[in-house]
Amino acid sequence: MDKVKPGWAIGKQQKLRTVEGDDSTQEARGNKKKTSGGTKWKEYIALSSVPLVLVLGNSMLVPILPEMERKLDISGFQASLVITLFSLAAGIVIPIAGFLSDRFSRKAIILPSLALYGIAGISAGIGAVMHSYWLLIASRALQGVGAAGTSPIAMALVGDMYKGGDESEALGLIEASNGAGKVLSPILGSLLALIVWYAPLFGFPLFCAASFAAMLLMIKEPPNDKEKQTVKQYVSDGVKIFREKGRWLISAFVCGSLGLFILFGILFRLSDLLEKAPYNIDGVPKGGILAIPLLGLVATAYLTGRKIKNNGTLMRVLMLVGLGLMSGALTAAAFLNGNIYALIGFTTLSSIGTGLLLPCLNTLITASVDRSHRGMVTSLYSSLRFFGVAFGPPLFGWMADRSDRLLFGVVAGLSLMGLIIILLLIHPPKKVGG
């Protein structure tokens, strides 16, 4: 074995069929067929629609939560469950969806998941019209189950379909689409709510239908020629993967989850400050301001995906630079003393750092295993990311009640911790993937 860190070993002497071996050779051979530029971008658009739909289905509802409390006569806690139950259901089911996508096919999971996501959205809208809180909540939990089979499986599908520069470019677009959804969600939610407060619940299924059609018509999934494993063998092989690669793989999971935890925590705090005196900015104008740091994330994620290709050395450098930028910007934000303009600037710098980090992690993770376990690995990664987003706002709210210096000091420390993890534990080879 060469001097590359253990777990990145995909050398000639490694014959484990479950890690890379013959499967990676088959995959690489299967991906040699080039598609035209127009076809490739149609595929990119279809794949990017899936994470966009995932984000819209949750974040579009945030602007209508206060009105929901009044119209349904529920508490703030009950209203928050509309978001929390969705996130918890998705986080729990995501690993199951990953396993099923490995055993059957990616589209066999993504398409029914999109259908369930949209149909449950209609049911949630009916619950709102009927003033039935319990129908609304049950439908949101069902939407979370549907959401579990969307973006994480699309990430695995990218790994199946592309290699090298195309893979990193597609993953960068998926991360950019995720960020773009967060830019658009509060604005779209606020605009639709001008019609009637529950309009976002009925509007969202239209986005699901569009993504369903794009995936059905534009994506041709590579065939899975490998013989199906028994569940026992699948689990045994999964254990082998984490025995070989667990040290860096789990480190990558943690860093990706930290990146999103920090991003949405500071955006939550910025959103809260904008609503308070002396700014009193809400609705669409607030969404426009929050779009500034998110646009920094979107542009950086896309450019990073295009640039890194399968260059492991560059990925490591960009991850360290990204976390260093996040740590520095957030440390500076701890000493702002309420200057909202400077806070927007430092939040944008931190978001740019996140845009450098996430596409690199996505590419390393999807390229680390063969097709038969890629869904499991990307789903575990996505599940951790999901929980990072779900629990970020309440924890940040608790810290903000004590002091902004505490809040930004903690997230700066977490960014520095991520930097140290990558420095010590993640050493990708010069060329990543098959």
What does this structure look like?
The protein has 434 residues and is mainly alpha-helical. The protein has a single domain, classed as MFS general substrate transporter like domains (Growth Hormone, Chain: A, Up-down Bundle), CATH 1.20.1250.20. It has helices at 21-30, 37-59, 65-72, 76-103, 106-129, 133-148, 151-161, 164-193, 199-218, 231-275, 283-308, 312-333, 340-366, 371-402, 404-425. The protein starts with 20 loop residues before the first helix and ends in a 9-residue tail after the last helix.
Structural class: mainly alpha
Helix and strand sequence: HHHHHHHHHHHHHHH
Reported for the largest beta sheet, the result is: none
- CATH architectural name: Up-down Bundle
User: Which whole number gives the mean pLDDT?
Assistant: 84
Helix content: over 70%
State the name of the first-level CATH class: Mainly Alpha
What can be said about this structure in brief?
The chain is mainly alpha-helical and 434 residues long. It is built from 15 helices and no strands.
Topology:
Layout lengths: L20 H10 L6 H23 L5 H8 L3 H28 L2 H24 L3 H16 L2 H11 L2 H30 L5 H20 L12 H45 L7 H26 L3 H22 L6 H27 L4 H32 L1 H22 L9
